[in-house]
Every structure is written in structure tokens, then in C-alpha cells.
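Researcher: Re-running this chain for the archive, since the previous output was lost when a drive failed. Same request as before.
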Amino acid sequence: QVQLVESGGGSVPPGGSLRVSCATSGVGANNLYFAWFRQAPGKEREGVAAIRPGGGRRSYADSVKDRFTISWDSYQNMVHLQMDNLKGEDTAMYYCAAARGVSGRPFDVLSYVFWGQGTQVLVSS
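Model: Regenerated C-alpha cells:
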């Protein structure tokens, strides 16, 4: 059983930066895909960044490309999402998720079977 615990959310002004982190535990974490999803009130959950620690492959949603960076810390088994140049539309609950396979679709919600409880990110002046 994989367990995911997010941390690091908060409130920042537009243009600011924030890093959210996900502590992972459980057997075989290095063989999984990890992703960050977000969900704003009244909107569907959407994937923003994904990584496969074993291969180092990363994927980003167009809306966050060149602003967000996902990384894997192999010493602490943590997934980080560095968010720069934040915009109001980035305001959402951010969730860490893990999948055993994604079949070439890293942001397919149905592929992810392990989820954290979420951490809130608010971008506001």
C-alpha cells in the first residue's frame, strides 16, 4: 500500500513562488508514476505535472509548462512541485497521486489509484 502525504501549500501573491511536497511510503515506490493534480471549486480535477522516478521522464500540462517543475528526491522518497510565476488561475487544491502505469497518458485520473489528502494553494493579492 502506497501512502502519500502532501505539504507546503499556502497563500502567495501573483508572480510569487511556492513549493509543494509529497512524502511517499510503501513498497515499490520507485516503480510508480507520480503526478500532481489540482482541482479548483466547480472545476474538474486536472493533471499538471507527472514524473516516473525510475526513468526520469517528466510531463507537464500546457498551462504550467515553463513555470512548474516536478522532481523526485530519491533519498527521502519525496515528490516536489516547484511553482514559479504563479497566477490567479493556479489557485486550487493540489493532490499528489501515484499510478502503477499510465499507458502513455500521464494525466488520466483513472490511472491513479493512490491519492493524498491535498494541500491548498491560493494565489491572490
